Amino acid sequence: MKGLILSGGKGTRLYPLTYTNAKQLIPVANKPVLVRVIDSIRDAGVEEIGVVIGQTGPQIREVLGDGSKWGVKLTYIPQESPDGLAHAVKISRDFLGDERFVMFLGDNVIQGGIGQLISDFAHSDWNSQIVLKEVENPSSYGVAKLRPDGSIEQLIEKPKNPPSNLALVGIYMFDPTIWEAVNSIKPSWRGELEITDAIQWLIDAGRSVYPHVHKGWWIDTGKPNDMLEANSLVLEELTPTISPEATIENSQVDRRVTVERGAKIINSTVRGPTIIGENTVIENSYVGPFTSIYYNVRVTNCEIERSIVLENSSLSDLGARVQDSLIGRYVSLQHSDEKPKTLKMNVGDHSSVSVV
């Protein structure tokens, strides 16, 4: 079995952070979302993975390389224009051949992995299996209608009157019958080849399509608050560790904090669940729960909570607590006047901000 990760989206809902960075490379708990997807597929026993890339392809190639760092073999499949998920499948034929495969959207974060999903599909004669999740607002999603025998009868995109509360998550299993489906459908009103249309084609052609209802949490990290929520959930699942190569001086660091190699915490309070990245310095500061600070960051005379700070950034002498924020790479935040306020911001790479 092979894996296919779709990682060609621009991430416009995460602007300005994604003007200069692929959205799938933004980390949650200091690990890029795309790497978490690779880990999930590898842990399920699949080591050959194709990655469909678009305009941010060079960045993704630079970070992932050949995949050996994560114990997989990666093949990159360029998608020249965003013509839909089914189109991404279609252009991956040479890589996938006639093997069964799992397809995973590269900006999804789920709890518990996909080992059971792959095992169920591998031991069945189903043509497709789709991961579904019970949601509170099904009219905002693609929704599945099930038959009495548990198979999928119909997929409906954002229905006004949802036939169920089972939403499509963005993880799919297919056998070679998918090739006839993607070659038979027509572009939607958006001008794209929709994967839901391809799956519906399988259903209408009498193929067997079954659900896998995911019981854990699932988040599409397409928007800033979703990214922060995913970060919080993943931090809660980490087993906290403090590297023997980290330095902690005159500081309170609780047991839910992870401190990575080369990090320094000086005269500060750090409360978890939180992760402090490699070679990051926290000095005379407070770092509150659900915060991920990536590598080579410096935080001095600041308070920060429930935020993500990317690599090589600096926060200094801020007179207000930074909260619910995404701070990009090579960002400089500094305070020029003491007026206590709560700061909430999404700051793109290479920014310099003075708060007055």
Notes on the protein architecture:
The protein has 356 residues and is of the alpha/beta class. The protein folds into two domains: 234 residues, Alpha-Beta Complex (Spore Coat Polysaccharide Biosynthesis Protein SpsA, Chain A); 116 residues, UDP N-Acetylglucosamine Acyltransferase, domain 1, CATH 2.160.10.10. Helices cover 19% and strands 32% of the residues. The protein has eight helices and 31 strands. The strands form seven sheets. A seven-stranded mixed β-sheet has the order 5-4-1-6-11-8-12. A seven-stranded parallel β-sheet has the order 14-17-20-23-26-29-31, with no helix packed on it. Helix 2 links the parallel strand 4 and strand 5.
- Write down how many β-strands occur, each being a DSSP E stretch of 2 or more residues: 31
CATH arch. level architecture of the largest domain: Alpha-Beta Complex
Q: Looking at this structure, what is the CATH superfamily of the largest domain? A: Spore Coat Polysaccharide Biosynthesis Protein SpsA, Chain A
End-to-end separation: 56 Å
- Ranges where pLDDT stays below 50 over 5 or more residues in a row are 11-16
Assembly status: single chain
Spatial order of strands in the largest sheet: 5-4-1-6-11-8-12
How many whole angstroms does the radius of gyration measure?
22 Å
The major beta sheet can be summarized as: 7 strands, mixed
The chain-level structural class is: alpha/beta
Total of helices: 8
- Taken from the alpha-carbon principal axes, the silhouette is elongated
CATH topology title of the largest domain: Spore Coat Polysaccharide Biosynthesis Protein SpsA, Chain A
Q: Residue-averaged pLDDT, rounded?
A: 88
Instruction: Determine the fraction of residues in helical runs and give it as a percent range.
Output: 10-25%
Report the portion of residues in β strands.
Answer: 25-35%
Instruction: Please indicate the count of domains.
Output: 2
Q: Which CATH class of the largest domain?
A: Alpha Beta
